[in-house]
Design a protein that fits this description.
Elements: H1 5-17, E1 22-29, H2 39-53, H3 57-68, E2 72-79, H4 82-85, H5 93-107, E3 111-118, H6 125-139, E4 144-152, E5 156-158, H7 159-175, E6 187-191, E7 212-218, H8 221-229, H9 237-266, E8 270-274, H10 287-293, H11 304-322, H12 340-347, H13 353-358, E9 369-370, E10 377-378, H14 389-393, E11 397-398
Parallel strand pairs: 1-2, 2-3, 3-4, 4-6, 7-8
Antiparallel strand pairs: 1-7, 4-5, 5-11, 9-10
Helix pairs in contact: 2-5, 3-9, 5-6, 6-7, 8-9, 8-10, 9-11
């Protein structure tokens, strides 16, 4: 599809005035051929492959950003879930984590994801041991990110894994208490994880993916926020949704342009563009501010869950209209630590942990802790004083919902 002059000028305006950037170009890389009977040998192979395949990633993406005039905020790598390649290896998987992290440092990426396990229906003995290694792995590395998928719509919820993940988060935070608990900010607990997600901390390279692939994640909440705030206050919701949908179309086109060019120069296939609206601590670059611009006094007020649903649906429709390669999650990230509007809503009491749960939080919430950079800062939110321990202690699996009786 050709890019018109008008589209190019609109994209330039969004870039200069409305905080548009390409959030990430992520190299997805299979490490399945690195598995061996020894963790030491597996670690050696994995580190070598990452350094070899990703050698030109950062330099190439920076060149493209400079030439096109669209900033690419992060360069990242997502690897095969490490629990899979360490399954038959003897030794501590933390050694593999450190080798992967060291390779990420060498090639210059911001993050590397994939210290992950998929245990939504159950876990092998090796996977259980792998889960126990996550806190140490995250506490002893800089760039490594981890995730665990504990549920799917079809399989239900693995409550044994949920219980173990709770312990993982507490242990990871405790191990890095002198650094604001940063280790748990590099961890994601998923339901319905997708295997082509370019966004950290939950990115991993799925088993259905090619050997290596370039995926792109676009940001853009500042662009959407600007448009919604400048729309008439009495504009009907369906027309507001159309504005968001059209903007998402343009954001998708800009992101795909960057991604396809990166893939071409690196000699790799282009995978997907993920149009998830990903906020930053910059004023106005906020999902919470978009929701407030729709007509709410504060994010967290009654009705804001419906507004978030409208926003997510419009983003998905606009992206699907613009590209045949839309994938990942393509929705709205709502992390407290990275969103200035969310932080303010928590501080004044407009947004509670229960409401955030209803919004399906996907990232860190937190006493004010300072992570710095893209991870931002987060106020700690009060949790319920009443225990759920008995329910969690039951373990087992919550059955999947029935699909044939939807109305």
């Amino acid at each position: 599809m050709e890019y018109s002059q008008a589209e190019i000028l609109q994209t330039v305006a969004m870039t200069e005035m409305e905080h548009l950037d390409v959030r990430t170009v992520t190299l997805g890389l299979s490490l399945r051929d690195c598995a061996s009977e020894s963790i030491e040998r597996t670690a050696e192979r994995a580190g070598e492959k990452i350094r070899r395949v990703a050698d030109r990633l950062v330099r190439t993406v920076n060149e493209i950003g400079d030439e096109i005039g669209i900033r690419v905020a992060n360069k990242r790598i997502a690897v095969t879930p490490v629990s899979m390649i360490s399954e038959a290896s003897t030794g501590n998987p933390v050694q593999l984590a450190r080798a992967i992290d060291e390779a990420a440092e060498v090639v210059g990426v911001d993050f590397i994801g994939g210290y992950s396990a998929l245990v939504h229906k159950g876990a092998t003995h090796s996977e259980t041991e792998f889960l126990n290694s996550i806190p140490e792995a995250l506490a002893s590395t800089e760039h490594l990110c981890s995730s665990v998928n504990v549920a799917t719509t079809r399989a239900g919820i693995n409550m044994d894994a949920v219980r173990q993940v709770g312990n993982i988060i507490k242990d990871a935070a405790e191990r890095t208490r002198e650094r604001g608990g940063i280790a748990c900010a590099k961890f994601v607990c998923f339901a319905n994880a997708v295997e082509d997600n370019p966004f950290m901390a939950g990115a991993f390279h799925g088993v259905g993916e090619p050997e290596a692939v370039i995926n792109v994640g676009v940001s853009g909440p500042g662009v959407v926020n600007y448009a919604v705030r400048h729309a008439p206050a009495d504009l009907p919701l369906q027309e507001l949704a159309e504005i968001i949908k059209k903007l998402s179309f343009k954001l998708s086109r800009a992101g795909e342009l960057v991604g396809r060019e990166a893939a071409r120069r690196l000699g790799l296939p282009f995978g997907i563009i993920d149009l998830s609206l990903a906020p930053t601590p910059v004023a106005g670059d906020s999902v919470a501010n978009i929701i407030e611009a729709m007509g709410f006094e504060r994010a967290g007020a009654h009705g804001t869950t419906a507004a978030l649903a409208l926003l997510t649906d419009a983003v998905k429709k606009g992206g699907a209209m613009a590209s045949g390669s839309v994938g990942g999650m393509s929705g709205a990230f709502i992390p407290v630590s990275e969103d200035a509007g969310m932080i303010e809503a928590v501080q004044i009491g407009a947004l509670s942990l229960d409401k955030l749960e209803a919004w399906t939080s996907v990232c860190s919430v937190g006493e004010m802790v300072e992570y710095g950079g893209l991870l931002g800062s987060a106020p700690i939110m009060a949790a319920s004083l009443f225990s759920s321990a008995g329910f969690i202690q039951r373990g087992g699996r919550i059955p999947a919902p029935i699909h044939s009786l939807r109305n």
